[in-house]
Write a structure and sequence with these properties.
Layout: H1 8-16, E1 19-25, H2 32-38, H3 59-73, H4 77-93, E2 96-104, H5 105-111, H6 115-123, E3 131-138, H7 147-151, E4 162-165, H8 176-186, E5 190-195, H9 201-211, E6 215-218, H10 226-234, E7 238-241, H11 243-248, H12 260-266, E8 270-272, H13 277-280, H14 284-294, H15 299-312, H16 317-332
Parallel strand pairs: 1-2, 2-3, 3-4, 4-5, 5-6, 6-7, 7-8
The chain binds zinc ion.
Length: about 325
């Protein structure tokens, strides 16, 4: 079993680009070596899912796998800190300058303790040279029982930059989410939402209408409905896409049918990220290589995808322009 290999000249080019990662679950990113160190004698062989042609049978099978790492490893703020340190170092190693990552409310619910401690644990792991924005992710049915008082306070958590609605898309949307998303925005934080990974255009429209967010994680479903596709353009909605994840989870029939090509050609702001790299065995080189090797993206077009990541980044314009001008310089050498 091996991770996908990438043509060295393509890999070098992708490596040379300043990049972003704006769709990353910290629980799905716990480094494999860290699992091996933490649980000696376990996690000895790398997951079957790292094989380039592997596809999950169902979302549930994927969820079980990610939770089997996440529940085992993430039991304290200290564990989040240790993992985040290594994840962020791997970003620097990949020439990534800006990251948006989320931690999952379901883990906090399981381990107990205070959410702000996890926020501090992750934020204090950010190295020099990397900008990180941290989100708390939750499910469409999380607002109940003991979680309600906690969720009603999220907007006051210092250091938390925003919230994200995670999959599972078969759970019905509920009105509470609209109120929470608005409250969080009014507190000066940023909001986004997973939608349209499996459930089509209607799911994307509901996320936009109910939550009022301008950033959709995945959003593939919008490609299959003309009006929704146009809506992305009219309302300048950006999609943080994860093509390797979409292929391995069968959100698309095959890699050639991934709609990122159509979105990009029409002028939708699309970015690429790894989603859950411990589960899929991918990194950003794999994501960009997929665009180049299977969807005919040119070097120039790949630079534009990298540029999109900096366009959506939650930073001062002066920082953004410095990153963008690095990409401009690279483009001039093509
Ligand atoms: Zn995701």
């Amino acid at each position: 079993m091996m991770k996908a290999t990438v043509d060295p000249s393509i890999a070098d080019f992708i490596q040379s680009l300043p990049k972003t990662e704006t769709h990353l679950h910290i629980e799905g990113a716990v480094p494999w070596e860290l699992l091996q160190e933490t649980f000696p004698g376990e996690f000895e062989s790398i997951p079957e899912a790292w094989a380039p042609d592997f596809q999950y049978k169902s979302f549930t099978q994927f969820e079980d796998e990610v939770l089997s790492y996440a529940y085992r490893y993430y039991t304290s703020p200290e564990r989040y800190h240790e993992s985040a340190k290594r994840v962020f170092q791997s970003h620097l190693d990949q020439n990534v300058r800006y990251v948006e990552t989320s931690f999952h409310l379901g883990i906090l619910e399981r381990i107990g303790g205070a959410g702000p401690d996890i926020v501090d644990a992750i934020k204090s792991a950010v190295p020099e040279g990397l900008e990180v924005r941290l989100f708390m992710g939750m499910l469409r049915n999380h607002y109940q029982g003991d979680l309600i008082p906690l969720m009603d306070e999220i907007h006051t958590w210092e250091g938390l930059d925003g919230i994200d609605m995670h999959g599972h898309e078969t759970i019905p949307w509920a009105a509470w989410a609209g109120d929470l998303w608005q409250r969080v925005r009014e507190a000066g934080k940023f909001t986004k939402s997973h939608a349209g990974e499996f459930e089509g255009a209607k799911d994307v429209n509901t996320a936009l209408d109910l939550l009022g967010t301008r950033r959709i994680q995945h959003g593939l479903g919008a490609a299959y409905d003309k009006a929704t596709f146009q809506r992305l353009l009219d309302e300048e909605i950006a999609l943080d896409m994860c093509p390797v994840s979409n292929v391995k989870l069968r959100s698309v029939e095959n890699v050639k049918k991934h709609p990122i090509r159509e979105f990009f050609d029409a002028g939708v702001t699309v970015t690429v990220s790894t989603d859950d790299p411990t589960v899929f065995g991918n990194d950003l080189v794999h994501e960009y290589d997929l665009l180049m090797s299977h969807l005919n993206f040119t070097k120039k077009e790949v630079i534009q995808v990298a540029r999109n990541g900096f366009q959506v980044a939650l930073v001062e314009d002066s920082t953004r322009h410095a990153w963008l001008s690095e990409l401009d310089q690279i483009e001039l050498t093509l």
